Amino acid sequence: MSLTASQEIYVSRLGRGTLGFAALVVAVLAGICIGETPIPVSIVLQTLANRIFGSAYVLDPIDMGVIWNYRLPRAIIAACCGSGLAISGMVLQSLLRNALADPYLLGISAGASTGAVAVTVAGMGAGAISMSLGAFVGAVVAFALVAIMARAAGGGVTLHGTGQIVLAGIAGSQLFNALTSFIITKSANAEQARGIMFWLLGNLSGARWPDVWLAVPIALVGLAACIWYARALDAFAFGAESASSLGIPVRRVQVVLIGFTALVTAVMVSIVGSIGFVGLVIPHAARFLVGVRHGRLGPATALIGAVFLITADVLSRTIIPGQVLPIGVITALVGAPAFAVILIRGRRAP
Amino acid sequence: MTVSSLALAAASFAFLTAVAAAEPTKYPLTLENCGETLTFQKAPASTVTVGQAATEVLYSLGLGDKVTGTSVWFKEVLPEFREVNDQVERLADNDPSFESVVAKRPELVTVQFIWHVGPDGIVATRTQFHDVDIPTYVLPADCVAKDNTVGVDGTRSELFSTTTIHQGIRELAQIFDIQGKGAELVASLAERENAAVERAKALDLKGVSAVFWFSSAEMDIDPYVAGRKGAPAYMMDKLGIKNIIESDEEWPVVGWETIAKANPKLIVIAKMDRRRFPADDYERKLEFLKSDPVASQMDAVKNDRIVVMDAHAMDATIRTIAGIEVLSKSLKDFGLAQ
Amino acid sequence: MILEAHGLGWSVRGKPIVTGVDLVVNEGETLGLVGPNGSGKSTMMKLLAGIRQPTSGDVRVKGEALRAMPRRAVAQLIAFLEQQAETTEAITVKDAVDLGRTPWLTPLQPWSPKDDLIVAQALADTDMEGFERRSWATLSGGERQRVHLARALAQQPQILLLDEPTNHLDVQHQLSILDLVAKLPVTSVVALHDLNQAVSCDRVGVLSGGRLVALGPPHEVLTVERIGAVFGVRASILTDPADGTHMFRFHPAS
Q1: Which of A110, A112, A148, A252 is packed most tightly, with the most Cβ within 10 A?
Q2: Architecture of the domain delimited by C3-222
Q3: Is residue A7 part of a domain?
């Protein structure tokens, strides 16, 4: 019995989906097996068996705790942040029709950092609002400011305005990073600059189960929104007016999707600090692999982002023995050259 | 000869050397200080301090009346100096501006941390002060065998020792021509230290390990802990405790996974007035240790062997000696004797 | 009376671009819009498509106010071919034409084989069969224009709004596309540059300085006097010996 064309497509999609999911599982396993200290794989597996299947292997409680309470949530958070930031980057790139759009580059991450620091360090809101909410407000304010700046500079969402929004984003990032430093410096006693770098470079070491219960739903909501709006995002290929003539309520879609982007970015930043280049590079890698249709691109971007950030986290813990590099350093080391490639390719494009 | 009589002998030797050195300073006085050569024609009539440790050393030497301005405060002044300190203007809680220091027309600026006045000094560089004929003296504890260009808080090439604190006291005493007072202070600090060390030695400790937790940028995040060359490392070394951290940085960031797996016998947590991070509060540190699913499994937490120590004692200051005393007493209280 | 405009106006920063246009488009007709550069043709088309909101007056489709309709409902009725719609995305011809089905799909009503047939027909109608897998970046200007038209056709609209659809096209494709539009059982409004192409429309509207200065059958509207007044050229009318239709030849006014 031969398969019809659409069945073949279905099978190949199923195959690719399975492959992608397997890659994610392997990455998570690597994240649990590789850490600061060596723990034999057999103990890792026994711990998982104890916790998931209720087995009763006798294990050192510290080993078990490290695997179940540190490494596993850390890997899951890395996956959520990777996919959340990558999805955010993809949505911004499509909506703004700008290959360089990314929550980090457009100042959203910097704004989220400022918001989070304003709540935790400067005590704004007097404990009534959470750090995530502060980060969200910061993210939205930063993006609004960058959008206004870009618009005033004649940019906006046209093909010709690509430069302006990136420049405005850089200016916005600088402003909000300066504000973050200002808040920290102002409210601190005389003490060295320990810890400021956390917000600027990202750090996954604080990942625990309660964060997982926040990160997983947010990452899934981000992915769901982007799948739900996949056709709308496709319709932006020829610009906002073209999308409008294809029946897309442009303003509403922009507001909703940018809102989701700000939410996802803000929550991720409030958990791990701001991690650059994931949102910029991963969507391009995904486009290269599965094409530009958002129905496929969204899940692929999320998956690659998740695997990428888990891998980057494992590298950050192992590349220099006995020392943990900030994860932002790893993503930048991969991302900056990729950024250059995108710029050069963009120049060559007709 | 018993151990305690040995300590007594050491202390009296220190006292004897102190008395021997107690003669008036000959001016012009020239001395090397953290890479700069300083020359004094006479004892400075006034000084401004940058750094609480510098302030407290001068107060300990009875030079409170010479101090015309203070800055960079980490916590309340030691209670015995409260009265003296009330008479002195506080230029800034944090970093003072160059002009506010110069405006006091001090004949000396006494500095705790090199990063306030080093090549990238946030107050000013030493050259800037020297250009307006104000000498700067940096406490040797922050520059002897220490590279301040490596790591966030600098990196020591040799284990810190209280001898650099003694050196700072002696040199300041020399500059201000009160060498007798300086020798006395050094002798009493050395005596306290030796006594604390002897008490610990009497416990005949075996296999005791520890970690010093200063703070963390976020409650659950990798904490700042004491490296193996700073003041806490010196305390542990002197008292026969193994430091589980193997970094040369002053306050490296080390993961809880590494700490938990090393499973130290005791944990020393810093108590400070600073509230930049939630973990600055020692109560929050205790709470974390008891509630974190992994940290709570460590022997030190299970057996409640947690020492709360003045954070300023963990920096290279005269309070370091009090830190040694606290740690030595805790070893006994925890019943770690063999 | 499928599409009508009443007192339609649009201005930017106080400068009027389109002013007081009253226009009724009849079902099934092909209406040509002509006018010199800057006369407001493109703005007029965007207002009729509803992707720009008028600053005065309104547009009605089948009696219903355009601004009150959901974009999706509008897109099921009206397809709009923009001038110079470009992309830097690495999309294929098929991807671009598939977009035309957007107003008919929802997440719960996904792509079906029927949509494949409609897209294939649109590609055939625009002579773009066999180009499906070609990437956008490799297409010529004329091919891109035909893909855009195919996308508009895939929308299966009742009204086609085409802003200078013959731009970039070679002579053969200019003719075949105009012929196709004329034969389609839809109402179309076509902004045109070439007055000779406007002659074959059912009716012609002339825009000048943002106002509709004439509207009617081509031979009534496109007179030598009006062409002189609106376009600033001297026109002479020739008769094609092949089929007896009139055509214009232009000379500098002096």
Answers
A1: A112
A2: 3-Layer(aba) Sandwich (3.40)
A3: no
Q: Which amino acid is at C113?
A: P
pLDDT per residue over A235-262, tens digit each? 999 988 899 999 999 889 988 998 888 8
Distance CA C192, CA C49 (A): 16
In a domain, A2, yes or no: no
Smallest CA–CA separation between C137 and chain A, in Å?
A: 7
CA distances from B77 to B19, B90, B94 (A): 29, 12, 14
* pLDDT of B68: 95
Instruction: Give the C window 123-152 contacts with A, CB below 8 Å.
Output: 137
Nearest chain A residue (CA) to B252: A323
DSSP run (H or E) holding C189:
strand C187-191
- For A326, B204, B335, the CA distances from B332, given in Å and listed in that order, are 40, 10, 5
DSSP notation for B85-126: HHTS-B--SSPPPHHHHHTT--SEEEES-HHHHSTT-SS--H
Asked if residue B137 and residue B61 are part of one domain, the reply reads yes
* Residue range(s) defining the domain that contains residue B120: 25-176
Minimal Cβ distance to A235: which of C73, C92, C102 = C102
* Residue of chain A whose Cα is closest to the Cα of B51: A190
Tokens of A190: 């005389």
For chain C, domain boundaries: 3-222, 229-254
User: Residue B4: inside a domain, yes or no?
Assistant: no
Nearest in space to B336 (alpha carbons), one of B282, B277, B264, B288: B264
Within this chain, do residues B168 and B208 fall inside the same structural domain, yes or no? no
**CATH code: domain of residue A272:** 1.10.3470.10
The CB-side HSE value for C179 (13 A sphere, CA atoms) comes to 9
- Is pLDDT of A204 > 70? yes
Backbone φ and ψ for C113, nearest 5 degrees, come out as: -55, -30
Do B172 and B246 belong to one domain? no
Q: Which residues of B touch A122 (CB under 8 A)?
A: none
- Judging contacts by C-beta atoms under 8 Å, the chain C residues touching residue A235 are 99, 102
- Most B CBs within 10 A among A63, A66, A181, A270, hence the mutation to make, goes to A66
The percent of residues in chain C predicted with pLDDT above 90, rounded, is 71
> Could you tell me if C114 lies within 8 Å of chain A, comparing CB atoms?
no
Domain count of the fold of chain B: 2
Closest CA to A207 of B4, C20, B49, B222: B222
Highest mean pLDDT among B45-59, B87-101, B324-338: B45-59
pLDDT band, very low/low/confident/very high, at B119 (cuts 50, 70, 90) = confident
Question: For the purposes of burial, counting CB atoms within 10 Å of the CB of C248, is it exposed (0-12), middle (13-18) or buried (19 or more)?
Answer: middle
Q: Residue A197 pLDDT > 80, yes or no? A: no
Q: Is residue A3 part of a domain?
A: no
Specify the pLDDT at position A349.
44
Q: Cα separation of B301 and C106, whole Å?
A: 58
Same domain, B171 and B29: yes
Same structural domain, B38 and B148: yes
- Is residue B165 domain-shared with residue B209, that is, in the same domain? no
Residues B157 and B43 in one domain: yes
B195 within a domain of the structure (yes/no): no
Task: Please tell me whether residue C224 adopts helix, strand or coil conformation.
Answer: helix
Residue B197, in any domain of the structure: no
C157 with C80: CB under 8 angstroms?
A: no
Q: Measured between beta carbons, which residues in chain C are less than 8 angstroms from residue A160?
A: none
Nearest to B211, CA basis, from B239, B250, B248, B241: B241
The minimal CB distance from C76 to the residues A228, A239, A247 is found for A247
B14 in a domain, yes or no? no
- Please check whether residue B245 is in contact with residue B284, taking contact to mean a CB–CB distance below 8 angstroms: no
> Is residue C33 within 8 Å of residue C207, measured between CB atoms?
yes
- Check CB contact under 8 Å for A97 and C71: no
Q: Which range marks the domain in which residue A328 is found?
A: 12-348
How many separate domains does chain A show? 1
Residues B145-159 pLDDT 10s: 777 776 666 778 889
